[in-house]
């Protein structure tokens, strides 16, 4: 019995020792490659790794194509997911050049953890909330106040994800204009709290929900839907930070990518996909 | 334990040819669960585990997965019997259809259910006319679980029925047993173990179902938020909540699997 335990323990130790050794390997490979890249005339193939919030998918893919066109030999690869999940992956050792978050919370956590320099994060866009409806508008909703109509099927992002938090903040602000019970009446119509904003869009697009609240950028990427604007004084403005990682394998390329996102061309692409300008 | 060491002393080095690979796979199963349990042990454990959200999710998970198993056994046993014993054209296509949900990603199952039974789905108009609205309801959770988990029962039961000696069946027929008597007095008792195993697999799969549920049934506390959903959203909020809820789910699964296995052993 004791023997087996010893063996199992030794084995567990070996496994953790192996896994701890792996993250160091790619760094050393890249270090030995970089002198070669500068000495040859032909562009050396380089892979830029960008972790970005799921809401940035369409816009960043377009910016990435433009970046590849202006940087021969460079391939921009993206990992799009919830900002919290990306942050966890970076903390657990993912080697990343650039991180673009949908909120300051996850970026701040990486700054605290030493993964991002404290002066590195820059706000590169803003986003707002909008009410999204299926094209045929089955519940016949016309203004924000209609969200309290009893029995409509409303789908929101869960309170745990940034957009869900902003949604509840906006509803809170609407209490002052539409009466103190407004938020509770709207929340009583919620049939589902989705785990990400794209799920809200899908439920509305499929006509399963009568309405949802999403980012303006998500509504812009879903052309077969209707929208109801939320006035600026009742809206919540989300600001997205971007930064290069302190241990970025390609720090030079990382800052060039960030510069291209902040450039007028990059900003034009972001606004085309429904994002607001830097505020 | 003594028997285990006999293998090593009798077989010498060749015993390690079995022990080493087995140990590697066991480590892969055990180490993540161990790490999770170690992280979960802290002062907040009971606050998280007995929070209203966790208890609601737990209750819903237990109810829906039990209903799933009940419905699966009721409808799946005749289907498994037909597949095991009857011969008819294009039976292999039917078997393929029944096995398909096992290999499909749950997200495919969820979107397919939505497009079939959703309000704007293929059968939406018929269901609407009958006053039935499935998405975002507890029955939708059960449907999603049945879609992904029932094939495991049907498969296990089909194999169980197929393994029964065909001569037993023939002698029962010679003695004048009809199809129902043959099934209830010969096949059902003999395939009992396979049926229980299949039901356990289906129950466990239903308890862990996430992908199809979040698409078809959504996520609302007390209505459609099962344990896996609460865990996933706990991950968005803070890792601590997710870890504690995971350990609670693992604990429940271990206890219930143990109970069922014990019952199974007593039968034999």
Q: What sequence of helices (H) and strands (E) makes up the elements of chain A?
A: HHEHEHEHEEEHHEHEHEEHH
SS content category of chain A? alpha/beta
Could you tell me the strand content of chain A as a percent range?
15-25%
By CATH reckoning, the class of the largest domain in chain B would read Mainly Alpha
Query: How far apart are the first and last residues' alpha carbons of chain A, in Å?
Result: 66 Å
Largest β-sheet summary of chain A: 5 strands, mixed
The tally of strands of chain A reads: 10
What gap, in angstroms, lies between the N and C termini of chain B? 23 Å
Give the overall shape of chain A, derived from the CA principal axes: elongated
Overall geometric form of chain B: flat
The number of domains of chain A? 2
Give a quick set of tags describing it.
heterodimer, A: 279 residues, alpha/beta, D-Maltodextrin-Binding Protein, domain 2, 2 domains, 5-stranded mixed β-sheet, 11 helices, 46% helix, elongated, B: 268 residues, mainly alpha, MetI-like fold, 14 helices, flat
Care to describe what's here?
The complex is a heterodimer of chains A (279) and B (268). With 279 residues, chain A is an alpha/beta fold. Chain A has two domains: 48-126 and 239-279, 3-Layer(aba) Sandwich (D-Maltodextrin-Binding Protein, domain 2); 129-236, Periplasmic binding protein-like II (D-Maltodextrin-Binding Protein, domain 2), CATH 3.40.190. Chain A is built from eleven helices and ten strands. Chain A has helices spanning 2-21, 24-39, 57-70, 83-91, 104-112, 162-178, 182-188, 197-205, 216-220, 251-262, 264-272, and strands spanning 46-53, 74-81, 98-100, 122-127, 129-134, 154-157, 190-194, 211-215, 225-229, 238-244. In chain A, strand 1, helix 3 and strand 2 form a beta-alpha-beta unit. The longest helix of chain A has 20 residues, at 2-21. Chain A is elongated. The model of chain A is unreliable at 9-40 (pLDDT under 50). Chain B is mainly alpha-helical and 268 residues long. Chain B folds into two domains: 1-41, no CATH class; 45-267, MetI-like (MetI-like fold, Orthogonal Bundle), CATH 1.10.3720.10. Chain B has 14 helices and no strands. The two termini of chain B are 23 Å apart. The mean pLDDT of chain B is 86. The chains are: A alpha/beta (279), B mainly alpha (268).
């Amino acid at each position: 019995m004791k023997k087996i335990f010893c063996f199992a323990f030794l084995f567990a130790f070996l496994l953790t020792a192996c896994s701890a050794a792996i993250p160091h390997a790619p760094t050393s490979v890249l270090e030995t490659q970089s002198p070669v890249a500068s000495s040859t005339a032909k562009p050396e193939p380089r892979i830029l790794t960008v972790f970005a919030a799921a809401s940035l998918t369409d816009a960043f893919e377009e910016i990435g194509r433009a970046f590849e066109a202006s940087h021969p030999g460079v391939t921009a690869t993206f990992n799009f997911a919830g900002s919290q999940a990306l942050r966890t992956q970076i903390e657990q050792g993912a080697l990343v050049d650039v991180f673009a978050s949908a909120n300051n919370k996850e970026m701040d956590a990486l700054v605290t953890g030493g993964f991002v320099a404290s002066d590195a994060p820059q706000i590169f866009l803003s986003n707002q909330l909008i009410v999204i409806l299926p094209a045929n508008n089955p519940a016949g909703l016309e203004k924000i106040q209609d969200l309290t109509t009893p029995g409509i099927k409303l789908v929101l992002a869960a309170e745990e994800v940034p957009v869900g938090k902003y949604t509840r903040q906006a509803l809170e602000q609407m209490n002052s204009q539409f009466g103190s019970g407004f938020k509770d009446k709207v929340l009583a119509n919620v049939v589902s709290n989705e785990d990400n904003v794209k799920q809200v869009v899908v439920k509305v697009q499929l006509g399963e929900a009568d309405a949802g609240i999403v980012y303006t950028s998500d509504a812009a990427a879903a052309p077969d839907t209707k929208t109801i604007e939320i006035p600026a004084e009742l809206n919540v403005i989300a600001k997205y930070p971007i930064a290069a990682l302190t241990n970025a394998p390609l720090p030079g390329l990382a800052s060039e990518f960030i510069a291209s996102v902040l450039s007028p061309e990059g900003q034009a692409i972001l606004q085309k996909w429904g994002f607001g300008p830097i505020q | 334990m003594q028997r285990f060491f006999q293998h090593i002393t009798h077989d010498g080095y060749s015993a390690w040819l079995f022990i080493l690979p087995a140990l590697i796979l066991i480590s892969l199963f055990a180490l993540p669960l161990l790490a999770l349990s170690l992280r979960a042990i802290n002062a907040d454990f009971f606050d998280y585990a007995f929070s209203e959200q966790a208890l609601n999710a737990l209750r819903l998970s237990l109810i829906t997965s039990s209903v799933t198993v009940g419905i699966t056994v009721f409808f799946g046993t005749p289907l498994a019997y037909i597949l095991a014993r009857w011969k008819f054209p294009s039976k292999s296509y039917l078997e393929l259809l029944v096995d398909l949900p096992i290999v499909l990603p749950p997200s495919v199952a969820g979107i397919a259910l939505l497009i079939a039974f959703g309000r704007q789905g293929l059968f939406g108009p018929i269901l609407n006319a009958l006053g039935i609205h499935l998405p975002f309801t507890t029955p939708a959770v059960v449907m999603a679980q049945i879609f992904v988990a029932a094939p495991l029962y049907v498969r296990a039961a089909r194999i169980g029925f197929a393994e029964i000696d065909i001569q037993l069946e023939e002698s029962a027929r010679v003695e004048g047993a009809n199809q129902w008597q043959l099934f209830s007095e010969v096949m059902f008792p003999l395939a009992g173990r396979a049926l229980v195993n299949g039901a356990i697999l289906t129950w466990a799969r239903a308890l862990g179902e996430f992908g199809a549920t979040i698409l078809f049934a959504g996520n609302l506390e007390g209505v459609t938020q099962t344990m896996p959903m609460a865990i996933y959203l706990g991950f968005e909020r803070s890792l601590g909540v997710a870890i504690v809820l995971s350990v609670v789910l693992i604990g429940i699964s271990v206890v219930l699997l143990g109970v069922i296995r014990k019952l199974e052993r007593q039968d034999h």
